[in-house]
């Protein structure tokens, strides 16, 4: 077993940051319009990487977009610098690891809050991004981790897959990596959580059912249970905190139509936190509330209801 810890300086070039809402409508200069998720934008190569319907990869140049969308993409990259400044000010410990396994070379990132330094038994959350970049997803949850004493981990290259074979390969790779995470990062084996956004949330709940661990809960941001043909026969009893934007039409549709009923029928304890927004990473205060609820904190006095996950009404003229 070989681990390589890399310095923060070498990671600066790996830090494109998720903007508030990566799934959006894009207007192109040829007059067409598409609905797709932004996976990455590389300023050096001028390449924009989009994913359509969580399966089809699409690559464009910056100049292929409307002036408004070009400005949005430029702002998307500028946010990374702000996050690096935040990381330097965080009181906890950030570490990047690389593990050379038999199946793959695994890169994963860890943030340990300042309050857990020197404590061996502490809650651990494994975060799964919808895209291939684990570090930027972890950094978006640093402040919530610090506020709740939750050690968090995220990994590269566990994004949405195109085929069942790729999905199975992701699980196989994770099964190789998980024991190394457990051996490397101090944690309480009875307080292991897993979570993610969009397709990462789907993988989180599926992997929690496929892997024998005493998973205590799932952080479920913009997630769903998958197509009907891929639903599990049963779901492990645990806590699930749904954290969705009120305008996340896709995730909220399945939650109302099917997924909430399935989880409750399997005796899972389900909480809901609604925020103003779409299919996106929730604001910091909602992340904190989600982590607190999973940790059984008395700080959470009241959660949202399914009725709170409704789009904001469009103001009428004259209002």
Beginning-to-end CA distance, first to last residue: 65 Å
CATH architecture of the largest domain: 3-Layer(aba) Sandwich
The secondary structure category is alpha/beta
CATH superfamily of the largest domain: Alpha/Beta hydrolase fold, catalytic domain
Q: Nearest-angstrom radius of gyration?
A: 19 Å
Query: Proportion of β residues?
Result: 25-35%
What order do the SSEs take from the amino end to the carboxyl end, as H and E?
EEEEEHEEEHHEHEHEEHEH
Structurally, the number of domains stands at 2
Number of helices in the DSSP assignment: 7
**Could you list the spans in which at least 5 consecutive residues all have pLDDT below 50?**
1-20
CATH first level of the largest domain: Alpha Beta
**Average pLDDT over all residues:** 88
Any idea of the CATH topology of the largest domain?
Answer: Rossmann fold
Largest sheet: 9 strands, mixed
Major sheet strand order: 1-6-7-9-8-10-11-12-13
Shape category = globular
Task: Using brief descriptors, characterize the structure shown.
Rossmann fold; 319 residues; nine-stranded mixed β-sheet; 30% helix; SH3 type barrels; alpha/beta; four-stranded antiparallel β-sheet; 7 helices; 2 domains
Descriptive report:
This protein has 319 residues and is α/β, with parallel strands linked by helices. It has two domains: 20-81, SLA1 homology domain 1 (SH3 type barrels, Roll); 84-308, 3-Layer(aba) Sandwich (Rossmann fold). It is built from seven helices and 13 strands. It has helices spanning 67-89, 134-139, 142-148, 164-184, 199-210, 249-265, 284-294; strands spanning 3-6, 23-27, 33-42, 47-52, 56-61, 93-100, 105-112, 124-128, 151-155, 192-197, 215-221, 239-245, 269-275. The strands form two sheets. It has a nine-stranded mixed β-sheet, sandwiched between helices. The chain has a four-stranded antiparallel β-sheet with strand order 2-3-4-5. Helix 6 (249-265) links the parallel strand 12 and strand 13 (269-275). Helix 3 (142-148) crosses helix 7. The chain is globular and about 55 Å long.
